[in-house]
């Protein structure tokens, strides 16, 4: 059974991606930072349709914690074939009001974490001449958002990382793409008021915000053989808002 690691798989988009990948037949390593209950719930949902899933705790910005889960995943499930770099955190506020530590922490999770995870997944993929990496960017990485400057910069970095890595790893049989969601109904947007949500729906040609499964299904498509000639691309899942 092929193995997929979804970072931040316990909630929102990562949880939806974990379920969709399990439906494709992957054994899913559901990574989380602290919410073990949510991670176990995702695993139970997958096991409920006879899929295989196991939860693995690690802060993806912590090198030692990453070393440990990569070893644990290898021992428990096997070599990773699909890596979904999904874990992320948002921060709303002016750049000038952020402490240096807040800027570092945000960058460590949203950009560095994807690089640290990827470098650990790639050697086995290169040896097998087979692998898929899917990075989760954001529409703010494409167009920039006021009051989310560091987040937007990290997501623009994820897009650059995707394009460069696709060139580096294409000859080794590894595809690298990124999915760029618009506004998706997850905990990350729980502070948006009903009024803001309805304004966003009105601004969106498809007249709604996204569901985690909209993104999860796109991730599963990119992981599948249906996407075998797609690499280095940014696939926007945003209802047409940008
Ligand atoms: P979410 O509902 O807030 O869930 C975040 C997930 O990331 C949780 O599973 C959380 O684990 C995990 N996580 C956070 N920090 C982590 C760390 N340091 N190490 C490991 N895991 C960590 O977020 P979401 O909305 O699904 O977002 C998922 C991705 O999509 C993010 O990269 C986000 O930037 C991107 N995105 C989201 C939207 C949107 O509108 N929601 C739009 C564009 C892009 P715990 O459960 O343990 O806390």
- End-to-end separation: 38 Å
Number of beta strands = 7
- Briefly note the structural class of the backbone: alpha/beta
The proportion of residues in beta strands is 15-25%
**Number of DSSP helical runs:** 8
Give the uncertain stretches in residue-range form. none
Strand order across the largest sheet? 3-2-1-4-5-6-7
Tell me the overall shape: globular
- Cα-based radius of gyration, to the nearest Å: 17 Å
Mean pLDDT: 98
Query: What order do the helices and strands follow?
Result: EHEHEHEHEHHEHHE
Small ligands present? NADP nicotinamide-adenine-dinucleotide phosphate
**Multimeric organization:** single chain
For the report, how would you describe the main beta sheet? 7 strands, parallel
Helix fraction bin: 40-55%
Describe the model.
The termini are far apart. This protein has a seven-stranded parallel beta sheet with strand order 3-2-1-4-5-6-7, with helices on both faces. The protein has helices at 12-23, 36-48, 63-76, 100-128, 139-143, 149-169, 194-203, 212-223, and strands at 3-6, 27-32, 53-57, 80-85, 131-136, 174-181, 234-237. The model has no long low-confidence stretch (mean pLDDT 98). The radius of gyration is 17 Å and the shape is globular. Strand 4, helix 4 and strand 5 (131-136) form a beta-alpha-beta unit. The protein is built from eight helices and seven strands, in the order E-H-E-H-E-H-E-H-E-H-H-E-H-H-E. With 242 residues, the protein is an alpha/beta fold. The structure holds NADP nicotinamide-adenine-dinucleotide phosphate. NADP nicotinamide-adenine-dinucleotide phosphate (NAP) binds at residues 7-8, 10-14, 31-35, 38, 59-61, 86-89, 109, 136, 138, 181, 183-184, 186-189. The site of NADP nicotinamide-adenine-dinucleotide phosphate has 30 residues, from helix 1 and strand 2.
